[in-house]
Amino acid sequence: MDLNCLVFDIETVPDTDLGRRLLGLGEADDAAVAEAMFAARREVTGSDFLPYEQHRIVAISAALRTGAQFHVWSLGGLESPEDDLVTRFFAGLEKTQPTLVSWNGGGFDLPVLHYRALKHGVASRRYWDVGDFDQGFRYNNYLGRFHWRHIDLMDVLAAYQGRGRASLENVAALLGLPGKLGMSGDKVWDAYRAGRLPDIRAYCETDVLNTYLVYLRFELIRGRVTREAYEEEVARVWEWLEDRTEPHWQQFATAWDVT
Predict the structure, then answer these.
(1) Residue 158, SS3?
(2) pLDDT digit string (tens) for 10-43?
(3) Residue 11 class from Cβ within 10 Å (0-12 exposed, 13-18 middle, 19+ buried)?
(4) CB-side exposure of 102: number of CA atoms within 13 Å?
(5) For residues 259, 185, 237 and 247, what is the CA-based torsion angle, rounded to 10 degrees?
(6) How many other C-beta atoms are found inside a 10 Å radius of the C-beta of residue 241?
(7) Cα 126 to Cα 256: distance, rounded to the nearest angstrom
(8) Where do the domains of the chain lie, and which CATH numbers do they carry?
(9) 227-242 and 197-221 are packed helices; what angle lies between their axes, rounded to 10 degrees?
(10) What DSSP string runs through 189-212?
(11) Torsion of CA 82, 85, 89, 90, to 10 degrees
């Protein structure tokens, strides 16, 4: 099976530095600024979900399948600043030119990455190319919603219809996958404030692996892999998991095993 794909996911917290400037909060601490940002958003939409440009990335996780390689990891380290995470993401894309795969990446992860790249001045000619540098990108690029260099599985499986969208958690359950293991996106800010960045990165990694396994099934149903090749890829993931000693991967394997 010839794959060159990068499945990715990000986790974010409020950009409190931006919040201070937008709301004129001066020396207020991060918790107070974030609450003010949430309150301002609730007044407009009734929801705490902040606009894309007000998110700061604290974790980017990826699953890379290329050649004989398969690995899942989080970019950078616990002390890596946001600009380093964003730079690493786009540098990897420039180097390997993979098929990007996400769950709601077109609806959240990529727009946030766009704004953060803009903030930090992170260049990526390959990612933004729509045929200016490579004619092959004119009709198949990372930005086109109906192109295949980025596959937003949530969007595609819903036939690009808002009413058809499902959560990764529900689709993972549909396929007998572990899904989310004790963490969700709405808990990330509290976990971050509590100093639990390792838990956030672990959660992001398990989301990526769930997404990769959904992607394998998607490749099967659209006829790009045979049943035999699909089963070989799933076995490859199992072999990778068996070598992992980290608690979240052991939990993942146990939850998958009992399903």
Answers:
(1) coil
(2) 999 999 999 999 999 998 999 999 999 999 999 9
(3) buried
(4) 21
(5) -80
(6) 17
(7) 37
(8) 4-258 (3.30.420.10)
(9) 160
(10) HHHHHTT-HHHHHHHHHHHHHHHH
(11) 50
| Structure tokens belonging to residue 215 | 């992607």
Contact between residue 11 and residue 59 where contact means Cβ atoms under 8 Å apart:
yes
Collapsing DSSP states into helix, strand and coil, what is residue 28?
A: coil
* Triad 95, 97, 100: Cα angle to 5°: 125
Residues with Cβ within 8 Å of 235's Cβ and at least 6 positions away in sequence, in order, are none
pLDDT tens per residue, range 157-196: 999 999 999 999 999 999 999 998 877 777 899 999 999 9
- Closest Cα partner for 11 from 228, 207, 248? 207
Q: Could you write out the three-class secondary structure of 63-78? A: EEEECCEEEEEECCCC
Q: Between the CA of residue 214 and those of 185, 219, 226, what are the distances in Å?
A: 19, 9, 15
Considering only CA atoms, which of 158, 164, 134 is closest in space to residue 145? 158
Summarize pLDDT for 36-76 with one digit per residue, the tens: 999 999 999 999 999 999 999 999 999 999 988 999 999 99
What is the rounded CA–CA span in Å between residue 64 and residue 212?
A: 9
Do residues 199 and 183 make contact, with C-beta atoms less than 8 angstroms apart? yes
d(CA 110, CA 108): 6
DSSP string covering 140-179, please?
Answer: S-SS-TTSSSEEEHHHHHTTT-GGG---HHHHHHHTT---
- Residue 217, token pair as written in the block: 């099934």
Residue length of the chain: 259
Q: Looking up tokens 């201070």, which residue turns up?
A: 20
